[in-house]
């Protein structure tokens, strides 16, 4: 069965409701298989409607908010006596970064929310989940 040899699960998050549901499901899978959950938040560096450059202050604020969000995921796991959670961030295009990290990391499964916060971007260029399903070389569980 697909879940028998799971040791590391990648969970890309953006703090949307589907993202939170994906994380909860990943924790359940990890608890059953004694796996580690790596929670990834990608800080987007591209903007669909603008050529504006992001200031260092804005980047620092995005990082701060991202770290606060990731702390909530860690706290959720700890509240359920699950401590095999690691969090990390990446900076870039979320679709490309998630697929790249899924393929280059030592993961056996990606658990991702079906849609995230970027409705306009998703309508124009497709969702991170769709992109990950197409490009990941490992199983992807899409949660909605």
Question: Any overview of this molecule?
Answer:
The chain is α/β, with parallel strands linked by helices. Helices cover 47% and strands 22% of the residues. The protein contains 5 helices and 5 strands. The protein has helices spanning 17-33, 56-79, 94-104, 119-125, 128-135, and strands at residues 8-12, 36-44, 85-92, 109-113, 140-143. A 5-stranded parallel sheet has the order 3-2-1-4-5, with helices on both faces. Helix 2 links the parallel strand 2 and strand 3. It starts with 7 loop residues before the first strand and ends with a strand.
SSE order and pairing:
Layout: E1 8-12, H1 17-33, E2 36-44, H2 56-79, E3 85-92, H3 94-104, E4 109-113, H4 119-125, H5 128-135, E5 140-143
Parallel strand pairs: 1-2, 1-4, 2-3, 4-5
Family: Belongs to the universal stress protein A family.
Pfam family, one: Usp
InterPro entries: Rossmann-like_a/b/a_fold, Universal_stress_UspA, UspA
Portion of residues in beta strands equals 15-25%
Q: What's the total count of β strands? A: 5
Specify the number of helices: 5
Q: In angstroms, what is the radius of gyration?
A: 15 Å
Structural class by sheet pairing and helices: alpha/beta
Uncertain runs: 120-125
Average residue-wise pLDDT: 85
What's the overall geometry? globular
Largest beta-sheet characterization: 5 strands, parallel
Euclidean distance between termini CA atoms = 22 Å
Spatial ordering of strands, largest sheet: 3-2-1-4-5
Order of helices and strands: EHEHEHEHHE
Proportion of helical residues: 40-55%
Pfam families: Usp
Protein name: Universal stress family protein
Domain UspA: 6-144
Family: Belongs to the universal stress protein A family.
């Amino acid at each position: 069965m697909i879940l028998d040899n799971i040791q590391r699960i990648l969970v890309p998050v953006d703090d949307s409701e589907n993202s939170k549901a994906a994380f909860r499901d990943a924790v359940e899978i990890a608890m059953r298989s004694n796996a580690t959950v790596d929670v990834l938040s990608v800080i987007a560096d591209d903007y669909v409607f603008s050529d504006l450059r992001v200031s260092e202050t804005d980047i620092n604020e995005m990082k701060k908010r991202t770290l606060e969000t990731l702390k909530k995921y860690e706290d959720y796991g700890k509240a359920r006596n699950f401590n095999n959670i690691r969090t990390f961030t990446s900076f870039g295009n979320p679709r490309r970064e998630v697929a790249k990290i899924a393929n280059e990391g030592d993961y056996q499964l990606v658990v991702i929310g079906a849609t995230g916060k970027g409705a306009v971007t998703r309508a124009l260029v497709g969702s991170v989940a769709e992109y990950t399903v197409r490009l990941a070389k490992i199983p992807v569980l899409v949660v909605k």
